[in-house]
Design brief:
The protein is of the alpha+beta class and about 90 residues long. Helices cover about 40% and strands about 30% of the residues. The chain has helices at about 5-15, 25-35, 80-90; strands spanning about 40-45, 50-55, 60-65, 70-75. The relative contact order is 0.18.
């Protein structure tokens, strides 16, 4: 995971969930996903998956690259206004 990927993930977690996490926290989240500690929501491609991981009691929707073993970004929660607006546009 590159420093820019870690920074992007940290910023998205703060923006979308109000979480302040360290780079080590992001690394540990990725490790938990790699070892089966997350729930698969869907496959986006051969290497990229969308999964749900609980961190500090908060359910997070994360995009994870299995080949790089890194978190690419954090998506809005299912009950957030951002998610509902995006969902309405798709239907």
């Amino acid at each position: 995971m590159t420093p820019s990927q870690r920074l992007h993930t940290q910023r998205r977690l703060t923006e979308r969930y109000g979480l302040t996490v360290s780079t080590n926290d992001v690394f540990l989240m990725a490790k938990r996903i790699a070892h089966g500690g997350a729930t698969l929501i869907s496959k986006q491609s051969k290497h990229v998956i969308l999964c749900k991981l609980t961190h500090d009691g908060i359910a997070l929707r994360l995009v994870y690259d299995r080949q790089q073993r890194s978190i690419l970004t954090a998506l809005p929660s299912e009950d957030s206004a951002d998610f509902l607006v995006t969902k309405d546009r798709c239907t």
